[in-house]
Specification:
Oligomer: single chain
Radius of gyration: 22 Å
Shape: globular
Distance between the termini: 48 Å
Number of helices: 5
Order of helices and strands: HEEEEEEEEEHHHHEEE
Strand order of the largest sheet: 1-2-7-6
Structural class: alpha+beta
Strand content: 35-45%
Number of strands: 12
Helix content: 10-25%
Bound molecules: zinc ion
């Protein structure tokens, strides 16, 4: 029981989930912790008629998602999703959870960790893949997706840039940060602060 509590704190899964049990499994010569999780959701909103229902129709087969390391050990979350049935419109639907993106076998938390590792220029893709127990292809895809959200001029910065701060009250302070293409006299981006803001990533190649 004590291990369960400890793991629960480490995982930072959020209040929506409860851990049912923890097991260890040998996979490709790495001993992994498998954490069996269910949501605490007792009701869900029907996606077709917006009414709430408390009727659980059935449960789906468990899916496994790669998760963060626990005490230096790889871990996977095994989650059983519930399927609700709406008695107003008779629709059956699966509960919405925030653990992963549709069709992905790695959790959002691990994806964020990989993004953080990618910001460290001393780490190779191969190293990041190995330390996070995923393939190099997955790491490259995460990098590619993160880059695609950035405008062209930020992905391919000009040879000369200038930056400055100007007064503007934002959630992050009194000054905003502007990046200019000095030669073409163009503003490339305005950021809310010159300081690093968690969860924002600026890639400079
Ligand atoms: Zn409905």
């Amino acid at each position: 029981m004590e291990e369960l509590k400890e793991v629960e704190n480490l995982l930072k899964l959020g209040d929506q989930y409860k851990i049912i049990k923890i097991e260890e499994r040998d996979e490709k010569k790495r001993l992994k912790k498998i954490i069996y999780v269910e949501s605490k959701n007792k009701k869900a909103k029907c996606p077709s008629c917006d009414n709430y229902t408390r009727s659980i129709h059935d449960k789906l087969k468990p899916i496994e998602l790669k998760y963060l390391k626990i005490f230096e050990q790889d871990s996977k979350i095994s989650i059983i999703k519930k399927r609700f049935i709406c008695h107003v419109c008779n629709k059956k639907f699966t509960e919405k959870l925030d653990l992963n993106q549709k069709g992905k076998t790695i959790s959002n938390k691990l994806e964020q960790k990989i993004l953080k590792d990618l910001l460290n220029y001393n780490l190779s893709i191969k190293y990041i893949a190995n330390v996070n127990d995923v393939s190099s292809g997955i790491v490259r895809n995460i990098l590619k997706n993160a880059m695609s959200e950035y405008p062209e001029q930020l992905r391919l910065l000009p040879r000369v840039i200038s930056f400055d701060e100007f007064k503007a009250d934002t959630d992050y302070g009194k000054y905003s940060f502007i990046v200019n293409d000095l030669i073409h006299r163009k503003a490339l981006d305005v950021l809310p602060s010159r300081k690093k803001i968690p969860n924002t990533i600026l890639y400079v190649l």
